[in-house]
Amino acid sequence: MSRPRRRGRDIHGVLLLDKSLGLSSNDALQKVKRLYNANRAGHTGALDPLATGMLPLCLGEATKFSRFLLDSDKRYRVIARMGQRTDTSDAEGQIISERPVTFTQAQLDEALESFRGETQQIPSMYSALKYQGRKLYEYAREGIEVPRESRSITVYELQFIRWEGEEVELEIHCSKGTYIRTIVDDLGEKLGCGAHVTFLRRLQVATYPFERMVTMDQLNALIAQAEAEGVEPRTLLDPLLLPMDSPCEDFPEVNLLPVVAAYVKQGQPVQASGAPLSGLVRMTEGEERKFIGVAEIDDQGRVAPKRLVVEYPE
Q1: Among positive and negative, which fits the CA dihedral 57, 265, 282, 235?
Q2: Which among 130, 140, 176, 191 is least surrounded, fewest beta carbons within 10 Å?
Q3: Distance between CA atoms of 309 and 314, rounded to whole angstroms?
Q4: What values do phi and psi take at 181, rounded to 5?
Q5: Is 245 one of the catalytic residues?
Q6: Which tens digits make up the pLDDT trace of 93-140?
């Protein structure tokens, strides 16, 4: 007889994990899911094992709204090793060329300026984008190069931090879909010496506060503390979670009367006073402003539900 499936918790919210070096995003997700004993969990865009920093992990109903973080801006700190180009554009790849570093500060400044604003970027072969159903890095590992279309990206801010020897350090605030490794590789080619990423840290996703990030070591320490104090781990872990609607907190709010919200919960579009003319909105219900989901204003000006929260018993 098979053993009954162990039931986890219906816990909902977003944890801002400070991912450590060498840990894959999926491994980090599974570890956090086990620590919280959560039934459902998902991340909001992977960080390479080489990268550290902010990785928002969505638990429970928050997973329905994680895609809005995929579309958000990001901020990174990166160190580029000039003079060496690798096949993966980072330190985990094989060196494919070495050239002397002969550029001047003026040439570096001019090259950096070319990346600011809206530009076109061809994604690296070592990315998770798909071509004919397979991820690009799967082709790359087999030595196969496939065509990739350039994509429009925006670099809102590119701050020069330092240049010491063969290292250039930058801080980059960019739009979704921007590959920092590709920026560094392209920078190296513009300067005629090649370059690759040796350090990459994601400082921010959307407007999430970096002070709320926690490491895996801190989570494990809280588990140990809970055991020592004889309390449930959730007592110490759950307060770390941000609200499930935090991925869409910047959307305009439409507050609905309970009688109107009842129709929305059945998937029906409704008219609502104070709603914007178009776009996505965050729906709340009643005087308590309880979050019930995300809607889109349809062509008739109605609030049409797109993602709804399932109400779980307490």
Answers
A1: negative
A2: 130
A3: 14
A4: -60, -40
A5: no
A6: 899 999 999 999 999 999 999 999 999 998 776 666 676 677 766 776
